[in-house]
Amino acid sequence: MPYEMGLVFQWLITLDNHFLRLNLSQKASPFFSRLTEKPIHIYCERYSAREKIQFGVNIMALLLKTTRFIESQIDAFLDIVSDSAMMFQLAVEDYLNDRNEQFEQRLAQIRDNEHRADDLRVSIERFLYERTLIPENRGDVLAILENTDEVIDNIKDSLLQFSIEMPQIPEVLDDLWLQTTKASVAAVEQLVFAVRSFFRDLAAVNNYIHKVYFFEREADHIGERLRRLIFSLDIELSQKSQLRFFAIHIEKISDYAQAVCDRLSIYTIKRQL
Asked: What is the three-class DSSP state of 133?
């Protein structure tokens, strides 16, 4: 069931034989406060059954329109998350191949993505608080956005540290380094699919969550091999410690994706009850 229909049905169950016992007063929503100075149930008592039913249909249409707008904004937000993950992988490849100029360009793009994502998230949050007529699921949606936004923050922070410290990565580490990166990016991509499904196809959410967990484990396993290889090299201990720091940072991207899915799984169960 599409997310907006779920919201509509939640609203509909508040209707009883008196047609509109909404549990909403004039203070509950700016929309209702414009209708009358009295509580909504008093307003509804003035009208016939047909007028009340039409009123309910109009409210349903408004709910659907509002939710479609929110979903389009969330889609735009998730597009930024997906783009940032793919750009992160390209940036790591640039760094390993000494393409420093391209690396810095990708970092600048991800920084811009982070700002755009923050602006979108704040805009969505404000809209949900100011315009949404049904607040029951609002907290879950806000939490999903805020947690997913942390994934972009982690991606940006990781590349920023590369730019600041410029670690010297021995060529023998390149393959495992890139494998770890790809596993973390794959986890983020599956996270994006999971969140999209939460709003469109609830039955598919767990499938994508399972894939996030799979790629998070892969990132951990490959990351462990990478760290073991780092400490087997004949280089200074300080360089080993620095390389371990960066390897762990790349792994943590998949950890953040898993953390979002842990909460998303709970929100999915709540919607299925």
From this structure: coil
Q: Which domains does the chain have, with CATH numbers?
A: 80-272 (1.20.58.220)
Report d(CA 194, CA 191) in Å as an integer.
5
The amino acid that residue 126 corresponds to is R
Which one, of 214, 205, 212, lies nearest residue 187 by Cα? 212
pTM: 0.76
User: Which of 153, 146, 184 lies closest to 263, judged by CA?
Assistant: 146
- Cβ proximity of 253 and 189 under 8 Å: no
Residues 6+ apart with CB under 8 A from 24: 32, 39, 40
Question: By three-state DSSP, how is residue 242 classified?
Answer: helix
First and final C-alpha spacing in the chain: 13
Task: Note the pLDDT tens digit of each residue in 22-79.
Answer: 433 333 333 333 333 444 444 455 556 565 555 555 555 545 555 677 788 899 999 9
